# Entry
Amino acid sequence: MKIERPRGTRDFLPEEMEKRRAVEKKLREIVESYGYREVATPTFEHSELFKIKSGEGIVEEMYVFEDKSGRELALRPELTAPIMRFFVNDCSSLPRPIRFYYFGNCFRYERPQKGRYREFWQFGVELIGSDSYLADAEVISLADKMLKSLNIEYELHIGHVGILRSALSLLGDKASKVMRLIDKRDEEGLESYLNELGVEEDLKDKIKAIMNLKGGREIIEDAKRITDYNFHYIEKLLDIIDSLGIKYTLNLGVARGLDYYTGIVFEFYAKDLGAQKQICGGGSYELAQLFGGVRTPATGFAIGFDRVCELIEAKTKRKAVIVVVYFKGFEKIAFEVAEDLRNSGFIVVVDVMERNLKKQLSYANDINADFALIVGEEEIRKEEFSVKDLRSGEQISIPKEDLTTFLHVRLKR
# Structure
């Protein structure tokens, strides 16, 4: 019986994995250059962790199950909650600020579509312990540098949830639902809900005006005419962002539907992904107190690793492959030669199908190998190897002691 892979999941061929590993390696190098260190948490957690963070509604989007002792567990739908649970339990006494980064797979039970899968990967950071605008500036500049290193086109939008929350303060506990509707860009639902609450036209106009303010930092002056919110924090942050030459759009309609977000929020949108265009999102928040810890400021982001990889079309440069081709009876020597070459840093393949010389050479071509190294009686007697450059078709005899140097020189061409 043929068994298909589960819906919303993927298998990755070697070429795709090579690309993904190359992207991962580049992102790791950059994030570690900022002093962030990697942490890892379990693939499944108590479901309560995510309910506390996101509300009971999150259960519909999670893979939830009971273990043999009747405990309700869930495959993690994201990684910020597990990181903060880890922080509260084991890391709260570490020197501040704490710089963590993570890379791992997450799971959401939702309708699969282009750019959206039930198993997906996130690469993110959490900067824990600072409520300064400098922390926001560092995290935004880090995300920008990571995405810029991948040579993809994107737009950075920066907002602040405090501005909208200030305008919504008269709505009391109803403000949270309004923020969720704004976060979803559900203008029709927002209009309907505001009418249901009987919100006066002046306040409705004020909310919509703030939502639609978008542009350079000059829109701050427009915002000051709409609201009496203090923009000093935002202006200091933008001073740093401007000094680094980072391009951005100040977008006061960027919102978050969850109350633990406290200030700056930001999103990166790719230009070639259609509806699923967000490739990174982040902001400042306070979660520790929800998990039994002391209220602690933090800021971070998560990059949608799969969406980023979709945007990278160019193949990563792979290492050269050498196939050791041997005559029957020279298997032992072929394995020894291959091991010597591997110890010198080459990728080497030896036939394990007991095929003849012609079929071994054909296989070398089939896998796009760069060189075929022929091992036979004459090569052993002369202590030199016949090396065929499969890229050019040229074949040359090389003394055994010069083989490694020859291959290194050829590969630099």
